[in-house]
């Protein structure tokens, strides 16, 4: 697939997971160095917010938005995933007062499992996946223009419908 970055075409190689498929398994560390896997998130609907780089404007907006939603909605798991380092995520969260689950993946294992890694940029395509209690994808948005925000309302509505 391809997305754009300010109009420039960017390749996102591979086949990305589709609605109705079981989400690919992953295990990533959070900011407390605890491993969080897809299996840990089962039992509640889950919103996976995938961002290219925590230190950019749109990624910051997206993460703050879901951090706010996470503080308001019980029974829904929220996790932001990027291939930033733990230090980059921790510094940003400390400055911004964000306390939601942040998962770092500098080795790009998540991005390769979900085929969201863009080799040309060394970052992930901005995406949202909403998973049901069993880890099946029930909503997916891969934002077609990297500099645009995702459709928060649709993602939240999808998660609420599963709660």
From TrEMBL:
Gene3D superfamilies per record: Glutaredoxin
EC number: 1.11.1.-
EC category: oxidoreductase
Residue stretches making up the Thioredoxin domain: 17-161
InterPro entries referenced in this protein's UniProt entry, alphabetically: AhpC/TSA (IPR000866), Thioredoxin-like_sf (IPR036249), Thioredoxin_domain (IPR013766), TPX (IPR002065), Tpx_Peroxidase_subfamily (IPR050455)
UniProt xrefs under Pfam families: AhpC-TSA (PF00578)
Keywords: Antioxidant, Disulfide bond, Oxidoreductase, Peroxidase, Redox-active center
Gene Ontology MF term list: peroxidase activity
NCBIfam families: PRK00522.1
PANTHER family linked: THIOL PEROXIDASE
Name of the protein in question: Thiol peroxidase
Encoding gene (name): tpx
């Amino acid at each position: 697939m391809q997305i754009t970055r300010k109009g420039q075409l960017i390749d996102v190689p591979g086949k990305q997971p589709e609605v109705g498929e079981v989400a690919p398994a992953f295990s990533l560390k959070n900011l407390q160095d605890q491993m969080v896997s897809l299996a840990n998130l089962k039992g509640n609907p889950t919103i996976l917010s995938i961002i290219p780089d925590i230190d950019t404007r749109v990624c910051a907006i997206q993460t703050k938005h879901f951090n706010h939603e996470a503080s308001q909605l019980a029974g829904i798991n929220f996790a932001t995933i990027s291939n930033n380092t733990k230090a980059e995520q921790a510094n940003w969260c400390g400055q911004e007062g964000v306390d939601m689950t942040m998962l770092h993946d500098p080795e790009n294992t998540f991005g390769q499992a979900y085929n969201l890694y863009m080799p040309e940029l060394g970052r992930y395509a901005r995406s949202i996946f909403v998973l049901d209690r069993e880890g099946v994808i029930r909503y997916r948005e891969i934002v077609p223009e990297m500099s645009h925000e995702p459709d928060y309302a649709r993602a939240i509505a999808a998660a609420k419908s599963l709660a």
